[in-house]
Design a protein that fits this description.
Length: 264
C-alpha cells in the first residue's frame, strides 16, 4: 500500500511559523512498527495517521506518533489531520476517533475549530512536588494527565529553566508551566521529554487542563493563548460548562509531500 505523507504548520497561517506536523491518510492500519518507522523518518514533532471509518463520510480513526513512540490525544496532530481532510473533501465537521477519546473539528477555509475534553484537577491523587520543582516558587499546582505549575506572571514562565532529566522521571505525561496575563490571556510552556518532545512549540491538548483552571480562577469564558516557545504560534479558546473549543489555523507545505510505502 502506498500513501502520501503531507506536512503542515499548525496554529498559524504562515508557513515559517507554527508547530510542524505530518499526516497520512491510509486505507487500513499497518503494523505498529511500520507507523513508528514512518513517523521517525518524517522527523516532525508529531505524525498523525488517519483511516476512514467504513460508511461514515465524516469520520476517521486517528493515531499519533512522536519520533520515538505512539502518543495520546494530540491536539495539533488532529488539526493537521483536519487540514488534510479539508484539503481533500472541503469544508465540514469531521470526527476523529481514538482509543484515548474522540475529537471533533469543524473545518472551514478560514479556521479550524476543535472541540476538546475538559480535564479537571485530581485532588485525590495530588502528590508532593519534587524539591527541584518546589524551588521554582509556584503559586499553585495541580495534576490532570499532566502536572501543571502555576507561576506568578508571564516573566516567570518565560524564565523557567526545565530540568529534562527530572521531568522525564515524573509519573505524569508532561509538565506545563502557566500564568495569567491580564486582561484576557494565559501563557504556557509545555515539556514532554518522556515522549521525545523536550519542549513543544504549541500544544492543543494542554488546553484541556489549562482552560478549565483559568475559567474557574478568572470567570472568563474566552481566552487568547500564547505558548512562549521559540517559534510564534497563536490560538484562542472558548469554554463553558459543557464544552471547550480551540480555534486555530493550519497551512500545508506541499513541497515536502512524499510517497510512503506501508506493508499491505
Amino acid at each position: 500500500m502506498e500513501a502520501q505523507l503531507q506536512f503542515f504548520k499548525v496554529f498559524t497561517d504562515n508557513p515559517t511559523k507554527g508547530n510542524p506536523a505530518a499526516c497520512a491518510l491510509l486505507s487500513h492500519w499497518p503494523d505498529l512498527d511500520v507507523l513508528q518507522a514512518i513517523a521517525s523518518e518524517a522527523e516532525q514533532v508529531v505524525t498523525a495517521f488517519i483511516v476512514p471509518v467504513a460508511d461514515a463520510l465524516y469520520q476517521y480513526q486517528i493515531r499519533w506518533f512522536s519520533c520515538s513512540q505512539e502518543i495520546n490525544l494530540c491536539g495539533h496532530g488532529t488539526l493537521a489531520a483536519a487540514a488534510l481532510v479539508r484539503q481533500l473533501q472541503g469544508e465540514g465537521c469531521y470526527q476523529f476517533l481514538s482509543q484515548h477519546g474522540d475529537l471533533e473539528v469543524t473545518a472551514s477555509f478560514s479556521a479550524l475549530q476543535m472541540v476538546l475534553p475538559q480535564w479537571l484537577p485530581c485532588p485525590e491523587t495530588q502528590t508532593e512536588l519534587p524539591p527541584a520543582l518546589l524551588a521554582c516558587q509556584s503559586i499553585d499546582y495541580f495534576q490532570t494527565r499532566d502536572l501543571v505549575l502555576v507561576l506568578a506572571d508571564e516573566q516567570a514562565v518565560q524564565q523557567f529553566q526545565p530540568d529534562f532529566t527530572l521531568i522525564q522521571q515524573l509519573e505524569q505525561h508532561a509538565l506545563i508551566v502557566s500564568a495569567f496575563s491580564p486582561p484576557d490571556t494565559y501563557v504556557l510552556r509545555y515539556f514532554a521529554p518522556g515522549i521525545g518532545i523536550n519542549e513543544d512549540i504549541a500544544t492543543g491538548s494542554a488546553q484541556c487542563s489549562l482552560a478549565p483552571y483559568w475559567f474557574k480562577k478568572t470567570g472568563r469564558t474566552e481566552f487568547k493563548v500564547r505558548q512562549l516557545s521559540l517559534i510564534d504560534a497563536c490560538f484562542s479558546v472558548a469554554i463553558n460548562t459543557q464544552q471547550l473549543h480551540l480555534k486555530a489555523q493550519a497551512v500545508n507545505l506541499p513541497h515536502l509531500t512524499r510517497l510512503i510505502a506501508t506493508i499491505a
